[in-house]
Design goal:
Endonuclease III, domain 1
């Protein structure tokens, strides 16, 4: 895909949604971090249903650590892998208290050192909580980058690096959200909704529907 097409794609995304937001509910970087850890292999909707109740009880590293694994599990039992996630979140709370003054670190290496936090989660937190122009490649972004020809790659890291290289600087801050939302609601996995796609004429996908 040539640079002019990429520019046009992001211009259309921006025109349709100038200030995109993620669908996870949070009010602090810590709440966001917990929500993103919970969202692995789960829907944002299911995470929001759980955290609405959880955050009424505990929404800081200290208060959540005081819940303990046993106290946290009932709040997140409806979410997949909840036992592992509960252990990781409680361990993360302890590290935030011990090493980071109760604050979520604004540093990739420190974030990825937290239990349950990989590169994708770190990118989400850096982008949404701290306004860093990172791109967290989930299944939606990986699919779109390859299907449309926007930034083909064999694995998520390759796609992330390509996107960071080819996305014009003016669009990097919001590229993550635009692509996820496009993949979630338009360029879906099994039946892409090409008939309502705003970038249909710019996309390199050959088997367009509708």
């Amino acid at each position: 895909m040539n640079p002019l097409k990429r520019q046009a794609i992001f211009e259309r995304f921006r025109a349709a949604n100038p200030e995109p937001r993620g669908e996870l509910e949070y009010s602090t970087p810590f709440e966001l971090l917990v929500a993103v850890i919970l969202s692995a292999q789960a829907t944002d909707k299911s995470v929001n249903l759980a955290t609405r109740q959880l955050y009424k009880k505990a929404n800081t590293p200290k208060s959540m650590l005081e819940l303990g694994v046993g106290g946290l599990e009932p709040f997140i039992k409806s979410i997949g892998l909840y036992r592992t996630k509960a252990k990781n979140i409680i361990a993360t709370c302890a590290i935030l208290l011990d090493r980071h003054g109760r604050e979520v670190p604004r540093d990739r290496e420190a974030l990825e050192a937290l239990p349950g936090v990989g590169r994708k989660t770190a990118n989400v937190v850096l982008n949404i909580a701290f306004g860093e122009p990172t791109i967290a490649v989930d299944t939606h972004i990986f699919r779109i980058a390859n299907r449309t020809g926007l930034a083909p790659g064999k694995d998520p890291l390759a796609v992330e690096n390509k996107l960071l290289k080819v996305t014009p600087e003016e669009f990097r801050l919001h590229a993550h959200h635009w692509l996820i939302l496009h993949g979630r609601y338009v360029c879906t996995a099994r039946s892409p909704r090409c008939s309502v796609c705003q970038i249909r004429d710019l996309c390199d996908f050959r088997d367009k529907t509708g």
